[in-house]
Write a structure and sequence with these properties.
Layout (H helix, E strand, L loop, with lengths): L7 H14 L4 E6 L5 H12 L13 H5 L10 E8 L12 E2 L8 H16 L4 E4 L7 H7 L4 E2 L5 E2 L7 E8 L18 H5 L17 H7 L6 H4 L5 E3 L3 H4 L19 H4 L3 H5 L3 H7 L9 H13 L9 H8 L1
Parallel strand pairs: 3-8
Antiparallel strand pairs: 1-2, 2-7, 4-7, 5-6
Helix pairs in contact: 1-4
């Protein structure tokens, strides 16, 4: 197709249709600009409080984080997409488990490859694609593009679809039709806050990454403090509890993206298999997976924390059930 022969409205409609054809659940478009002052203040408060914990890279390139036009010359439009990752499979009661986003192949590559396909289909040459891979406030821009709103659990919530979505952005140097920002529809609900096992979520306050189990089990390179380790339950990579209790996720449908389906070998793993996992088996099991972020040592640390009491004794399934009772 020729960009010159398409007006802004037509091209915007084509982009959204092609995004849906590529498997994206939602697509919206925002005008590139500096973020609003309330968001800029929120970012600065979070950084000043050092709530990024050990993720010092979050304190880099703040100017670009607050103004995406510094990431690409001539940037005018931000095409925001959402790819469903709600799981179709579970590990079964009493088994060790992973956050749903980590069950398939690495989402960074999947989303960015689809965005490159989208750019190719609409015939643009000057563009950039992102998926959790640059100083881009992804949830902010998705909300500006009308996909959903940022909930009290700090996740983007898509109405009648939930929050289990990967977000991605296609930066373009052409003007398009822009969508209206979504309105927040959390209302008086605070289930995510009430069910956060470590208190990382608090009403009206910034997210403290140090207290978040996702940070502790993925980004943290040191031992997990006991006060957090004892809250892990069966999850050994990440944490979905604030999403699992969100009423909007009752509308979630299992994803059907082939690359996001878990390997059969992963679903067959039992508690004893995890405890005895070798580094070689780890490499085979998680080749091309986002779980590589924690590395073998980190995952084994998590497994030990989830399967031991705090005197170092391994918990069997039976004794753990008795403790829960």
């Amino acid at each position: 197709m020729s960009l010159k022969s398409s007006n802004k409205q037509e091209l915007s409609e084509i982009i959204k249709a092609e995004a849906k054809n590529l498997g994206f659940f939602a697509c919206g478009i925002a005008q590139a600009d500096r973020v609003d002052e309330a968001t800029a203040c929120h970012v600065r408060r979070w950084l000043d409080a050092e709530y990024y914990a050990g993720m010092a890279y979050m304190n880099n390139y703040t100017d670009r984080r607050l103004d995406p036009r510094l990431l690409m010359d001539g940037l005018k439009s931000i095409v925001c997409v959402a790819l469903n990752y709600a799981p179709a499979h579970d590990f079964g009661d009493g088994e060790l488990r992973f956050a749903a986003y980590a069950l398939g192949q690495d989402y960074h590559d999947i989303v960015k490859n689809k965005l490159r396909e989208l750019a190719d289909k609409i015939g643009v040459e000057n563009y950039r694609v992102f998926c959790d891979s640059a100083p881009v406030l992804e949830r902010y821009w998705a909300a500006q593009a009308g996909l959903g709103w940022i909930g009290k659990n700090h996740q983007l919530i898509i109405p009648h679809a939930g929050s289990m979505f990967f977000l991605g952005e296609l930066f373009l140097d052409i003007e398009l039709e822009y969508d209206e920002p979504a309105k927040n529809r959390c209302g008086n609900c605070h289930r995510c806050i009430d069910n956060c096992p470590t208190g990382a979520l608090q009403e009206g306050k910034e997210l403290n990454a140090l207290a978040c189990l996702s940070y502790q089990t993925i980004e943290n390179r040191n031992d997990i403090p006991q006060k957090y380790a004892c809250k892990m339950g069966e999850t050994i990579y990440g944490c979905d509890r604030c999403q699992q209790v969100c009423p909007w996720n009752r509308f979630a449908h299992p994803n059907d993206t082939p690359e996001l389906q878990p390997k059969e070998e992963l679903l067959r793993m039992k508690r004893g298999d995890w405890i005895n996992l070798s580094e070689e088996d780890y490499r085979k099991l998680f080749k091309g997976s986002a779980v590589k972020r924690a590395k073998y040592a980190g995952l084994m640390r998590n497994i030990k924390a989830a399967t031991c009491d705090y005197e170092g004794n391994e918990l069997t399934l039976d004794t753990k059930q008795q403790d829960d009772e």
